[in-house]
Design brief:
Layout lengths: L7 E3 L3 H14 L3 E7 H5 L18 E8 L6 E8 L2 E7 L5 H21 L4 E2 L8
Antiparallel strand pairs: 1-5, 1-6, 2-3, 3-4, 4-5
Length: 131
Amino acid sequence: MSTLFPFLVFEKTCSQVLTLVNEELTGAGFRTVQTFNLHTARLAHLECQCPHHGTSDCSCQMVILLVYGKQEDPATLIIHSQDEKTGVSLSSPVSEHATQNLGSAIRRVLVSQISDAFSPLERTHEHRATL
C-alpha cells in the first residue's frame, strides 16, 4: 500500500470503494469534493514509473476527497489502491479539535456502514496520524 495508515482496507478497486464512500457519506449528511485523482494527474507524465510496480503501466490509484460536515473546515479522506487492495485513510491536523471530531464522525459512518456492505480485510478504530 503506502505510508498512509488506513482505518479500513478492502480487496476491492478504488473505484468501488470511492462509490460506496461517497454514497455513505452523502447519505449521512456530509458533503464530499474530490480534489485529486492519480490517474488524471499521471496523464501529463506518461513516462513516469510507478514506485510500486517499476513501470509506467500502473494499476495504482489515489483519490483525495475533502469531506465537509457542519463546520467550515473539511477533513481530508484519502482512498489509495494498489493491486486491487484499497485503503481508506484520514489526514487532518492533529491540533484542530473540530477537524478531529469531524474525522471521528466520518470514521464511525464508514466503519459501520461500509463494513456491512464489504467485508474489510482490516478494520482499525483508533486514531492514527498519517504521514
